[in-house]
Design a protein that fits this description.
The protein has 15 helices and nine strands. It is an alpha+beta fold and about 375 residues long. It is globular.
Length: about 375
């Protein structure tokens, strides 16, 4: 009881000290006062049940960009972001378009060394094919094309992408130190297989495409043959452990709340303190591409139901999946009701279907708890 009384007194004191006019007041008081709506307790109960059925771990972050009210379920823990890192890649491309240092019609020549395993149609082109930046960005976001992503990173520079990531997080008042360095997608493969044997770090995209033809349980032996070494020299017992060790390096790892801040920078109209240097035209352009995302149809969108527009990006890796974006109700005044940042990641089971069922259930939990307004 004393805990709640003290909390109430703090809230009253803060309200008394708030200026009558909010202009110039940079601190978001929703983070200083323990403000929780009824939906938060309901959502917690639903997530507990989902996680128990899932058999792994869930991470969920939700924030209303009008009120500032936020919800966290392990959102401050480190999570592997997987292909969520492609959003700041696209943001850097658009920042350079805004600066006039590139155009979306500029064509990059696909080389054999550019190929990376994974989804997307860029790999269907022959080496030597000129491909527009517009096409590459569309494929990178909507179907999570890895080759397109690495070609764009090469065009704008990896350090610029990392700086863009930090800048987007800071623009919404987040802590850029909560995310590790972002790498190229081929670098992820080099990092993972390099945990098995250091010589794997010298392999290229085509080598990893060949390794991917083998089931996960056989990739260690396939790598040993490719390197001409014995599997007895491996420093990890299997691919799963190698990925765990790679994740522990911190590459492409961050908190879900930091990723929520990154997304929030795309809609600074909803946050008075945001200081994004990407103008409204280019923020809207990126959100429009994210609304066309076709990967992950069985994830959050499957559970949130009709009437929700979701500009999002998915990510998938070994025993790990993510879905994150900005949700808005269709045909309502979003300036009054708000837009919601939603970030969720899962880890544990081997079957991707288990992760997608869990995320669809999270979408339903958000819908029926009232987290996104009246269901």
């Amino acid at each position: 009881m004393r805990h709640w009384i003290q909390r109430g007194l703090i809230a009253v004191a803060l309200l008394i000290t708030l200026p009558a006019q909010a202009d110039g007041y940079e601190t978001n008081w929703y983070y200083e006062v323990d403000k929780q709506s009824a939906w938060q307790g309901d959502l917690t109960a639903r997530l507990q049940a989902i996680e128990e059925a899932f058999g792994g771990e869930l991470g969920v972050y939700v924030q209303n960009l009008i009120s500032g009210e936020a919800y966290s379920w392990r959102a401050d823990d480190p999570w592997y972001w997987a292909s969520l890192v492609k959003v700041p890649v696209a943001a850097q491309v658009l920042a350079e378009r805004q600066a006039g240092t590139l155009t979306l019609d500029e064509r990059l020549t696909l080389s054999r060394s550019d190929f990376v395993d994974g989804a997307g149609p860029t790999n269907w082109h022959d080496p030597g094919t000129p491909i527009s930046i517009r096409y590459l960005m569309e494929q990178m976001i909507t179907v999570s094309d890895n080759t397109a992503s690495d070609m764009l990173i090469d065009r704008v520079g990896l350090e610029a992408v990392n700086e863009r990531t930090r800048r987007m997080i800071a623009a919404s008042g987040g802590d850029p130190s909560e995310v590790g360095p972002i790498s190229k997608l081929v670098g992820v493969r080099q990092g993972v297989y390099g945990q098995l044997h250091p010589d794997a770090r010298s392999l290229g995209g085509m080598d990893f495409i060949a390794l991917r033809q083998h089931p996960v349980s056989q990739r260690g032996q396939a790598l040993a043959r490719a390197l001409g070494v014995s599997a007895d020299t491996f420093t990890q017992p299997d691919y799963d452990r190698a990925f765990d060790a790679y994740e522990a390096t911190g590459e492409n790892v961050g908190t879900l709340s930091a990723y929520g801040d990154l997304l929030a920078s795309l809609q600074p109209v909803h946050q008075d303190g945001a200081k994004s240097d990407l103008d409204a035209e280019h923020r809207q352009m990126l959100l429009d591409v994210m609304r066309r995302t076709s990967s992950g149809k069985q994830r959050l969108k499957a559970g949130m139901g009709e009437g929700i527009s979701f500009a999002h990006k998915t990510g998938t890796q070994q025993r790990r999946s993510c879905d994150a974006g900005i949700a808005e109700r269709v045909n309502v005044d979003s300036d009054t009701l708000g837009a919601w940042v939603i970030v969720t990641c899962t880890r544990g089971p081997a079957a991707l279907s288990a992760h997608e069922r869990a995320m669809a259930s999270i979408g339903e939990a958000l819908r029926y708890s009232g987290a996104l307004g009246k269901p």
